[in-house]
Amino acid sequence: MRHRVGNSFAIASGLISVCARGVDTAQELAAVMKDRLVALSSAQSLAVSDHLAPMRSRAHSP
């Protein structure tokens, strides 16, 4: 679990570094970061739900 949390912080740090290059204010950075994190969350949800859906269906079958 510690490794996964560390990876999450590394991703966030990288996103901040990349996004900070294209903005002029902290407010712009916050808006861009929010959009990027929402997109990342959406992509992860799609990947996980598609991958685990067949296993969940089998687990709930009689």
Structural account:
Residues 1-51 form the Signal transduction histidine kinase HWE region domain. It catalyses: ATP + protein L-histidine = ADP + protein N-phospho-L-histidine. The protein is mostly helical and 62 residues long. It has one domain (2-60). The protein has helices at 2-20, 26-60. α1 (2-20) runs antiparallel to α2 (26-60). The protein is elongated, with a radius of gyration of 17 Å. It starts with a helix and ends with a helix. The relative contact order is 0.08.
Question: In summary, what is this structure?
Answer:
The protein has 62 residues and is mostly helical.
Number of discrete helical segments: 2
Strand content: under 5%
> What's the overall geometry?
elongated
The overall pLDDT, averaged over residues, is 84
- What's the order of the H and E elements? HH
Largest β sheet strand count, sense and barrel closure: none
Low-pLDDT stretches: none
Number of domains in the coordinates?
1
How helical, in percent, are the residues?
over 70%
Distance between the termini: 32 Å
Rg for CA atoms: 17 Å
Quaternary status? single chain
Structural class: mainly alpha
SS elements, strand count? 0
